[in-house]
Structure formats: structure tokens, C-alpha cells
Amino acid sequence: GSNDGSLQLIHNMSSHFPLKVIDRGSNYSFSDSNNLAANTANGDFLLFVNNDIIWRNDCVSVMAQVLTDQGIGIVGACLLEPIKDADGAWSFAPHHEGVRFKADSLPDNGGAYYSAQELNDVPIELATAVIRMPAVTAALMLCRKSEFFKAGGFCKDYVYGMEDVDFCLEFKRKVGKHIVVAMQATAIHNRRATRE
User: What is the pLDDT of residues 33-62, one digit of tens each?
Assistant: First the structure.
């Protein structure tokens, strides 16, 4: 559904890489598109990657190695956000190192709920760790195909956002395996690039 030339680029790349192009003709939700892609995938594993991820290194091999542990079902990555300072110099700061829940209250009536919070302050001594989390972002996430479907896939009721958190919670409930962030698996998540 994009009109930015990305479909032609993917068709051109498919002559160099074993890509399967699914041209849907228009844009669909994250959940709908990724569920369709999962249904058409041939392999035993599913790697979900947003179009605004920039590879720094081979973090997929790191994630795949973590997933060899049969007690682990989902592996997320440490995502870095590009930040430009006042002088025009670029740096990278963690913006996603897993998702945790924080007790919060509604402003009008004080009703309690738990809000999902992206972590971005994991201590430096854990920079090479594999850390258990309640959820990770599907901007860069690896899991087994059979377990993705056992958990029910991404819920199509979400239009944009939180479908990955919902999936992780359902995955833990239905599959029962751990969800982790492999801190050594890092990539740049240039999330503003596709929103402007």
C-alpha cells in the first residue's frame, strides 16, 4: 500500500535475496499484516522487523542463539534511538530494553490500572545479559512459528500500538515460556523516520 517506491525496491531486492513479496494493494494494521506474513512463512522461526530498524551488526544470530534454550519462547532486542544534539552530532540512546508494568491511576476517579512502560535504563553491568521481561516490542522480535500460532498471533483489535505487548501476555499465558531481551542484540530503531 505504500506509494514511496518501497514495493519496487523490494521487487528489485528479491532478485538478490530469497524474498517473498506480498503486495496487498493498500495498508493494513501491524497485526493483520504480520499475521498474514506468519501464515505464509515457510520456516520454523518468525523474525518480526519494523521497516525503521537499522542493523548495526548481526543481532539476529545472537537472538537465535538465545532461542536455542527451550524454556525461552520470545527474544527481543535492545533498541537504540538516534538523537541529534544542538551541534548536529548524532548519538544513540537506549529506548527499548523490554516492557514492564507500572501501577498507575486514572486522573478523574483514581481507578487503578497497570500501564505498559518501555524500559530504557538497564544498568550497565547487565549490558551483555539475557533479561526476563513480561513483554518486548515486536519492532524486532524472534519466536518459533508453532508457538506464535499457539498463542493466537497478534490480536487484530489493535489499530496501532500495544498489540505486541498483548501478544507477549497471551504467549506467556498460553505457551508458558519465558520472554527475554538479549541485551547484546542491538539495532537502531529510527521510529521517527516512518512517522514524519
Answer: 999 999 999 999 999 999 889 998 899 999
Q: How far apart are CA 62 and CA 95, in angstroms?
A: 19
- In whole numbers, what is the pLDDT of the chain averaged over residues? 86
- Decide if 142 contacts 63 (C-beta within 8 A): yes
C-alpha cell at 158: 489493535
Indicate the burial class of 195 (C-beta count within 10 angstroms; 0-12, 13-18, 19 or more).
exposed
Per-residue pLDDT tens over the stretch 14-39: 888 888 888 888 888 889 999 999 99
Q: Grid coordinates in use for 63?
A: 537472538
Residue whose C-alpha is closest to residue 164's, from 130, 141, 189, 187: 141
* Distance between CA atoms of residues 16 and 14, nearest Å: 5
75: its cell numbers? 527474544
Q: Is 58 helix (H, G, I), strand (E, B) or coil?
A: coil
DSSP state of 125: G
- Which residues lie closer than 8 Å to 153 by C-beta, 6 or more apart? 31, 34, 35, 38, 167
CA pair distance 133, 17, nearest whole angstrom: 34
Asked if residues 1 and 23 have their Cβ atoms less than 8 Å apart, the reply is: no
Residues β-bridged to residue 47: 142
Cell of 185: 542484540
Where are the alpha helices (H) located in 43-162, listed in sequence order? 59-66, 145-150
